[in-house]
Structure formats: structure tokens, C-alpha cells
């Protein structure tokens, strides 16, 4: 299995937002919700319209860990959800429906959507469904969120695992020593 990286540059995130919004609102919402929640793709794709419609929080049980997950939706997520539901007219069923009536989008198709979108805007790093979760963690770290909090949000067993997972490079860690220069 190919390792994917977080999207580190805000300009690339913004370009992907513009590209996906212009192409397909479902795919745009998948991207927005993924990079703002840190959910695994298996949990994102299992979401139902009723899980998010007129809600301020998402409650679910993680498929991989079986742990309960409860978190608030950001304003951008709530706005995109509202626009998406208005545009599509969805009132129930999968939040991310596939072309097969009543079925959610599959992992492979979600991978293709994200990978193709990244290539279309010129991202050369490997991008896939896990990129959404890694991007969330990476940008939390870049905004100064304590690594143990990010560890807890991602349900990792150690801070070291989280640092490796979100792709913090040796150069980024070295920059701390160079920039602290007391």
C-alpha cells in the first residue's frame, strides 16, 4: 500500500477546495469534512444525512477502534453541509451516496476522486483518502496544538506515533532548535 502525505500548503488546500466545489458538491463536502474532522475514511463514508443535518456535533462509533467519537462541527463544515443538502435535496440515506441507489460511496472511488483532484491542481505528492486525516493532524500541529491532544483526537497510542503519522519531518523539528535561539 502506498504511503500518503498530508497536504502541507494552504494554497494547495484552497486550490483543491475550488476544484472540488466546481466539480461536485459531494466530493467537496467529503474533502471539507475530512480535513476538518480527522475522521478515517471508513467513518466518513458511513455517515448518514441524519448524522449531520441541522446538527452542531457529530456522534459516532469508530469502525476501526469501536470507540465513541463526539466532536463539534466547524462553521465551514456546517455551511458546506447546509449548502450540499439544499443543492442535492437529500433528506436521508448516505451522506456521500454512490451512483448505486442507497449505497454509500466506496473507499476506492473516494481514493480516485481525491487523487485525481490533487493531480489536476498539480500536487505531485501521493494523495489518497488518508491524506484528509493526516492533513487535519498536520495543521493542528502547525497551529500549535499540543501533540498529546492531537494524539488523543486521532486515537494514537503515543505522541511519537502521531508525529510520524502526520509527517513531521526532521527539517521541521530541526527548525525548532534554529528558531528558538535564546
Order of helices and strands: HHHHEEHHHHHH
Radius of gyration: 17 Å
Secondary structure: helix percent: 55-70%
Q: Stretches where pLDDT falls below 50 for ≥5 residues?
A: none
Number of strands: 2
Could you tell me how far the N terminus lies from the C terminus, measured between alpha carbons in angstroms?
43 Å
Q: Overall 3D geometry? A: globular
In what order do the strands lie side by side in the largest sheet? Answer: 1-2
Question: What profile does the largest beta sheet have?
Answer: 2 strands, antiparallel
- Indicate the proportion of strand residues: 5-15%
- Structure classification: mainly alpha
CATH class of the domain at 10-133: Mainly Alpha
In CATH, what is the homologous superfamily of the domain at 10-133? Answer: Intergrase catalytic core
> Which CATH-level-2 architecture of the domain at 10-133?
Orthogonal Bundle
The average pLDDT is 93
Question: How many alpha or pi helices?
Answer: 10
CATH fold-level name of the domain at 10-133: hpI Integrase, Chain A
Walk me through the topology.
Blueprint (H helix, E strand, L loop, with lengths): L9 H14 L1 H13 L3 H6 L2 H4 L4 E5 L6 E5 L2 H14 L18 H14 L8 H14 L4 H8 L4 H7 L4 H11 L2
Antiparallel strand pairs: 1-2
Structure description:
With 182 residues, the chain is mainly alpha-helical. It has a domain at 10-133: Intergrase catalytic core (hpI Integrase, Chain A), CATH 1.10.443. The chain has helices spanning 10-23, 25-37, 41-46, 49-52, 75-88, 107-120, 129-142, 147-154, 159-165, 170-180, and strands spanning 57-61, 68-72. Strands 1-2 form a two-stranded antiparallel sheet. Helix 2 (25-37) packs antiparallel against helix 5 (75-88), helix 2 (25-37) packs across helix 7 (129-142) and helix 8 packs across helix 9 (159-165).
Amino acid at each position: 500500500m502506498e504511503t500518503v502525505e498530508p497536504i502541507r500548503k494552504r494554497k494547495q488546500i484552497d486550490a483543491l477546495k475550488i476544484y472540488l466545489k466546481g466539480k461536485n458538491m459531494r466530493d467537496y463536502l467529503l474533502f471539507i469534512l475530512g480535513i476538518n474532522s480527522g475522521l478515517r475514511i471508513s467513518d466518513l463514508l458511513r455517515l448518514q444525512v441524519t448524522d449531520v443535518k441541522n446538527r452542531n456535533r457529530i456522534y459516532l462509533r469508530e469502525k476501526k477502534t469501536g470507540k465513541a467519537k463526539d466532536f463539534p462541527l466547524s462553521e465551514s463544515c456546517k455551511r458546506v453541509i447546509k449548502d450540499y443538502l439544499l443543492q442535492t435535496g437529500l433528506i436521508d440515506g448516505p451522506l456521500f451516496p454512490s451512483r448505486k441507489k442507497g449505497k454509500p460511496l466506496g473507499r476506492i472511488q473516494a481514493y480516485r476522486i481525491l487523487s485525481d483532484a490533487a493531480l489536476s491542481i498539480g500536487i505531485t505528492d501521493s494523495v489518497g483518502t488518508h491524506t484528509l486525516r493526516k492533513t487535519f493532524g498536520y495543521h493542528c500541529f502547525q497551529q500549535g496544538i499540543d501533540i498529546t491532544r492531537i494524539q488523543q483526537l486521532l486515537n494514537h497510542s503515543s505522541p511519537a506515533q502521531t508525529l510520524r503519522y502526520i509527517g513531521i519531518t526532521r527539517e521541521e523539528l530541526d527548525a525548532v532548535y534554529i528558531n528558538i535561539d535564546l
